[in-house]
Amino acid sequence: MEDLWEDILKIILRFPEIFGKAHADDRALFYWSYELVMTRCFGWSLKSTSLVPFADMLNHSNKAATHYLVHAGIENGIVFEDLHKQKAAEEQYYLKREKLDLDLFGIE
């Protein structure tokens, strides 16, 4: 994290018109932000990640929880023109509609 902070500080110092003047508490704010994202972010094994505050509340339950990422297109049977995308979808994604009621998403 210290290496990342040093890189961020260089950017802050280089662009004060965007970030304002550097402050002594900037490092603490960076550490807090970094820790928040690294501990609350969904999708690390995917191409992109997201912060989902409502879903994050599920992490603080005394009951086990399972999270599902639903791809409406694949669930509805789209076929990708790109064969590599189609193969990746078939290898990495399992159909939730076979296990869950997805009516809420408009998926039968």
Write a brief structural summary.
By secondary structure, the protein is mainly alpha-helical. It has helices spanning 2-14, 16-19, 26-40, 53-56, 72-75, 83-92, and strands at 41-42, 50-51.
Which parts are unreliable, with pLDDT below 50 for 5 consecutive residues or more?
A: none
> Roughly what percent helix?
40-55%
| Alpha-carbon Rg, integer | 20 Å
**Helix and strand pattern:** HHHEEHHH
Q: Give a short account of the largest sheet.
A: 2 strands, antiparallel
Strands, count: 2
Outline: elongated
Mean pLDDT: 84
Could you tell me how far the N terminus lies from the C terminus, measured between alpha carbons in angstroms?
A: 45 Å
Alpha plus pi helix count? 6
In terms of DSSP E residues, the strand content is under 5%
Q: Order of strands across the biggest sheet? A: 1-2
Helices and strands: which structural class?
Answer: mainly alpha
Describe the structure.
It contains 6 helices and 2 strands. A two-stranded antiparallel sheet has the order 1-2. It has a domain of 47 residues. It is mainly α and 108 residues long. The chain is elongated and about 55 Å long. β1 and β2 form a beta hairpin.
